[in-house]
Amino acid sequence: MQWNSVSDFFAMGGYAFYVWGCFGLTAVVMVGESLLIRHQRTELISQLRNELVSESTSL
Amino acid sequence: MKQQASEKVGLTAVLLATLRREVSLAMRQKGEVLTPLVFFVVIASLFPLGVGPESALLLRMAPGVLWVSALLAAMLSLQRLFATDYADGSLEQMALSSTPLGLLVAAKALSHFLLSGLPLVLMAPVLGLQFGLDSRSLGILMLSLLLGTPTLSLIGSIGAALTLGVRGAGVLLSLLVLPLYIPVLIFGAGAVEADAAGLGANGHLSLLAALLVLSLFFAPLATTAALRISLE
Amino acid sequence: MKTRLVHWFKFSSPQNFYFLAGRLWPWFAALAGILMAVGLWISFFVAPIDAQQGQGYRIIFVHVPASQMSMFIYIVMAAWAGLGLAFNTRLSGMMASALAPTGALFAFLSLVTGALWGKPMWGAWWVWDARLTSTLILLFLYLGFLALQSSIDDPRRADKACAVLALVGVVNVPIIYFSVKWWNTLHQGASVSLTAAPSMAVPMLWGMLTMVFAFWMYTIATALARVRNIILDRERHTEWVKHAVE
């Protein structure tokens, strides 16, 4: 372990904004994309279910 | 052998006939041919207005500015390449005819070069003078445009075929085609700069020629595939 | 032997692939999570401080995977597209479409992390080095693909048109990269290269490799999950979809 303290770790030798900015953005992109796909799936399924219902009632 | 010879003559005749058709059609709509040329002049004139009239700066900028302006102007008329024929059904006739579609596509790209690229080549020296380019640089500029604009027409025909009949085709065409134009831009503008720096333009011009040969072989293939997809 | 061949081909039907992808993607997601955890551990706790760049160099542990993957995904996308054109399979086009957004996001991520790396190291938010500029152009190619796809209504035509575009793009990428490198070396005295990582200590290499694999597993999981959505959307009028969503 090369960090003398927790605050040293967060400070990243003065590069905190840049390093954490990068890792943070990566996390946001990955989590965001995954959530978006899941959201699209639920939207799609509810849409398809509605279509099914309207089809069966219209018959 | 005799049949092959007559077939070969047939293909050349088709090529010339297509060229003649394109040129005569375009001549009826002179405005459509002239507008991109005027666009070229206007765009090139915008840059000095934007950055100031300092001659040293303009001289350094000239090859890049003129090449970018030529790129944009060449792109303007790309939509016309297939759209009008598509609208009146003659494109489908061409696709169904016995002549290989690749040949017709190449002929169309060549006529696009004659109608839009060549005027740019001829217009460029006039604009180059505005930027203070000397006669040697003007010559290299014209040569680079002469080698580069046919490639722009060929690559552009791929984009035109892909976006046939699509909403917002004009801007979409630009988005698709401009990244592919970048190598031509780099070598074209680079040729003039290299020559001005005393390094010689031969490397750049050879690369431009290589790109032209590559696109002459491969672009009609891609364009034909794209046309068949669009015509389905 | 022959039955084995038939077995694989059955997965080229969207219906079968939908359920296969459904079973597979959680595993890839789990792998991605594990590799990411290990990679982050190495990045922060094993890899030592750099002599010239201090702690700031750790950005490579996300910048390099992002740019590598954005390139790799484009090639895989073009491969799927080519398969689709050659064999006229619906699924191949769907896979290409499933990969594109992730590739575009990674290209964008590569650019932003590159900027965040360049600012403290070289004092500028953007440097026109060959790799960054090529990644920018790659992003344009991705955006063109996505734009073409969304502007054509018929999904089959859209897939095929995008396939041609992707193949033209993949052929052009080496040409573009070469021309940008040429442009870069011609215009610069001291060549500033964001990829000139000095002597790489072995732990740094391990960290980068682990992160690249983590990104890779993430990409596969995302693509499989996304293609399921695409399949549901395109095949909505079939019986099996109707049964699947009840």
Task: Explain this structure.
The complex is a heterotrimer of chains A (59), B (232) and C (246). By secondary structure, chain A is an all-alpha fold. Chain A contains two helices and no strands. Chain A has one domain. The model of chain A has no long low-confidence stretch (mean pLDDT 87). With 232 residues, chain B is mainly α. Chain B has one domain. Chain B has nine helices and no strands. The mean pLDDT of chain B is 89. Chain C starts with a helix and ends with a helix. In chain C, helix 2 runs antiparallel to helix 7, helix 4 runs parallel beside helix 6 and helix 4 runs antiparallel to helix 7. Chain C has one domain. Chain C is globular, with a radius of gyration of 20 Å. At the A-C interface, helix 2 of A face helix 2, helix 3, helix 4, helix 7 and helix 8 of C.
Overview features:
heterotrimer, A: about 60 residues, mainly alpha, about 85% helix, C: about 250 residues, about 80% helix
Helix fraction of chain A? over 70%
Backbone shape of chain A: rod-shaped
Derived structural class of chain C? mainly alpha
Number of helices of chain C: 8
| Portion in strands of chain C | under 5%
Rounded Rg of chain C: 20 Å
The value of Rg of chain A in angstroms is: 23 Å
Question: Roughly what percent helix of chain C?
Answer: over 70%
- In total, the number of domains of chain C comes to 1
The amount of beta strand of chain A, in percent, is: under 5%
Element-level helix/strand string of chain A: HH
Q: Low-confidence spans of chain C: pLDDT under 50, at least 5 residues?
A: none
Q: Main beta sheet of chain A, described?
A: none
Q: What's the main sheet of chain C like?
A: none
List the total number of helices of chain A. 2
The topology string of helices and strands of chain C comes to HHHHHHHH
Broad shape of chain C: globular
Average pLDDT reading of chain A: 87
Oligomeric state of shown chains: heterotrimer
Q: Runs of chain A with pLDDT <50, length 5+? A: none
Report mean pLDDT of chain C, rounded to a whole number: 88
